[in-house]
Every structure is written in C-alpha cells, then in structure tokens.
Amino acid sequence: MDEQYYIAALPNLSVEFYQAVEDVLRLPCYPEIRLPFHTTLYYLGNLTTQQKVSVIEGLHALELQAFTAKVVGLNFFQTDNFPHTCYLQLDSVYLNELNAQMAKAFGYIHKDKLAFLPHISICFPKLAITTAQLEELEQILSAVNSIDFKSIYLGSVIDNVTRINTEFKLK
After folding, report:
1. Which pLDDT score, from 0 to 100, does residue 54 have?
2. CB count, 10 Å around CB of 41?
C-alpha cells in the first residue's frame, strides 16, 4: 500500500481525556485506538517528493491561529450498517475556514470527494457495538466539551501506522 498524506490539526488533549480513552479501551467491542488523535483538515493522497516540499512551503506561508472547537456529539462512520469508526463531532467556524484554505492552497494536488466533517476519531470497534456500549461510550466521553488546537502537521499513514512528517505551531 502506498503512503497516503494529509494535513491535520493536532489537539492539545488533557489528562482527563486520555483517562476517558483508557475507559473506552475496556469496552467489549475491542476498540482499536490510532494515535495521534487529530482532525484531518485536508486529504492529499500520494505525494511526490516535490509535492511534499510544495505542501510544506505552502503551510509555512499560511497565517494560522490557535483555536478551540466545541464538541457537539458522539457519532459513527458506518459501512453496511457496521459502525467502524467512533468519533467526536466538532463545531468550529475556524476548522471549516482551515479546510477551505487547504483546498484553495493544495487543491491542485488532490480534490477531496467527501464533504468536510470536523471530527476526532476516538476508536475503531472490531465487533459490533451494542446500544448499552454506545450509552457507556457517551457517558465516558460526556465530560469532553471542547478541544484546543495549537499545531497542525503534514502527516502520512501506511498500513494504519501514522507518522508526523512536519509540525507547525499555531499562533
């Protein structure tokens, strides 16, 4: 499988958040966690070396600010009625603006076919999740009301292993 690149916002998560994630791992649906937790701002796909350099230079040129996103709910991405990705849905005008900036700056590399949905993936259940487990997940994550973001990065993933290639601190 080829290395797939993306631009993401890296959250500044609290100790309480990670303690909640420990509780999520105890659920009997065998949830898998993939680190680092992040919000994908723009998917780039395969990149040539020159394209990577162009993206890094483009990210350096952008004036980006630190921001906070409100957590508006817990939801799942599904395939064939199987919930395969549990995520916290986020609400932030700035996140949507960032996605639009990334599309404008890097749309010549890749045009994303999916609508932007600001979220942070929490876990990937290996077994179907029951209503009781969903209620437990909601309870575990109910204290997470907002999330601060202080950096973005160019990341890549291959065989579900994520790598941060270049990180940029937000002002």
Report:
1. 95
2. 24
Other CB atoms within 10 A of residue 39 CB: 25
Among 76, 92, 82, 115, which residue's Cα sits nearest to residue 170?
92
**Longest distance between any two alpha carbons in the chain, whole Å:** 49
Spatial CA neighbour of 37 closest among 11, 69, 71, 66: 11
By CB neighbour count within 10 A (0-12 exposed, 13-18 middle, 19+ buried), where does 98 fall? buried
SS3 state at 132: helix
Residue 113 is predicted with a pLDDT of 82
DSSP letter at 114 equals S
Task: Report the alpha-carbon distance of residue 27 to residue 130 in Å, rounded.
Answer: 10
Residues of the chain falling short of pLDDT 50: none
Predicted pLDDT at 119:
97
Residues with Cβ < 8 Å from 6, sequence gap 6 or more?
A: 40, 41, 42, 43, 44, 154, 155, 156, 157
Q: What pLDDT sits at residue 1?
A: 66
8 Å CB contact between 55 and 7: yes
Is the pTM above the cut of 0.85?
Answer: yes
Indicate the SS3 state at residue 117: coil
Residues in contact with 156: Cβ distance below 8 Å, sequence separation at least 6, in sequence order: 3, 4, 5, 6, 162, 163, 165
